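Hi support team,

I submitted a single chain yesterday and got back a structure, but I'm not sure I'm reading the token output correctly. Could someone confirm the output below corresponds to the sequence I sent? I've pasted both exactly as they appear in my results page.

Thanks,
R.
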Amino acid sequence: MDNEKLTRAEAQGVRYAAELEAHLRWLDSFSAAALGVLAVASGIYTYLGVTSLLDDNGALSFFAAISYSIAVSVGIFVFWSYLIRLLPAVRTVGARLGLFVAMLLGSAAIIAMSSWLNAAALAGAAAVEQHLATTVQDYQTALEQANEIAVSAQSLERDVSRVRQSFEDLSEQEATGDLSGLAGRGAVFRVLRQKSDELLGLETQIASQQPLVAAAFIEGNQILSHMRALTVEPGPIEVRSVQFSEEAVRLSGVITQLRQLSVAQLVNRAAEDLSASVVLPELDGRTVETRAGQQSTIRSVLQVLGQRAETLRRAADTVIAMPPPNEIIYTPISTADAVIRYAGNFAPSWAGAIAIDLLPAVLVFILAITHAAIRSGKSRVGIEDTMTISELRAALSAVTEMDGALRHAQGASDVSAIPQPQGTNGETAPSDQDKPADV
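Hi R., thanks for writing in. Yes, this is the structure output for that exact sequence:
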């Protein structure tokens, strides 16, 4: 009973293996053609990717791109043909491991020589547009930072105006005698007016730059608007990149102009000079007591000058401490470099570019599993039990031919073994068949 069950299991295994072999024979009828189509498709996209890297459009560049793409197609076809045939056929673990390592190395080589160029052909223009959009964003950030610094520096005008107004008020008090007790426009009055006039000049200079800052910011936004339009408008990306580069140069000039229009450094230097560079007039009091009062008032004024100067200096330092905008330099980029730099944004394109080259690896694994199943189905029976009718007929025909050849050889050897009569001179006597007939 056990032998009957074992025989039935063996028969089922043989039928299972025969079914798989029939499927493989049908699949083999078009597998080579399918692999060739994949290789040719990869070669076409590789050609498109190569042409995007070549600056020259002449005949030599054309033949160079064609040669490279043909080499890629042939390499992919031959590589996967080897693996499809050999890896499923080997049986030892060492051989399988060696071919698997070879497949990994070959796949890496295919990605290096073809897949990234395929990705450049699939998403190259979109990647360059992404590069333009990212550059526009960087320029916008730099423009806004430069304008913020310039506007913050313009706000120092209020601080300067407040300090100037305080000196004017003190000078008016000195003119009426409420400050030093000596009415008129004496030494103290002249000191106050001197600093008030300096601050008025600084205030006027700051106010004169306000329209320039506003105009530069408006111009920068107009350039940014045109650059944004270039990133999405139809047309060849190469032409748009050239126009984008020209606008980027203009915008860099505007950002530099905004940085130069900042008056923070000017206010800082004016604050340092406010108390350091005081031209003290000659005391004009008629008496010693009057001149002593003027001297005391001037010292108080100088102390106030130092306090006001420190206030202005801290306000200017706050603006100076603001982080400056990054220096943005637009660098044109090829489609192949763009898809590598922005690979994360074009994952589907990369997946398609790699899949068209490495899809045969799935076929290799499928065939390896199928061949292992076939060998498992035949492993418990002998070869005589797995022969098909056509194989059996071929074997019987071969046996028949071999048997006939052996019989022919045996008959020839028997004939040669029969002794022949000899003549008187040692020659073979003619047989009865060789003698002439009697007349």
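A quick pointer for reading it: The chain has a mean pLDDT of 78. Let us know if anything else looks off.

Best,
Support desk
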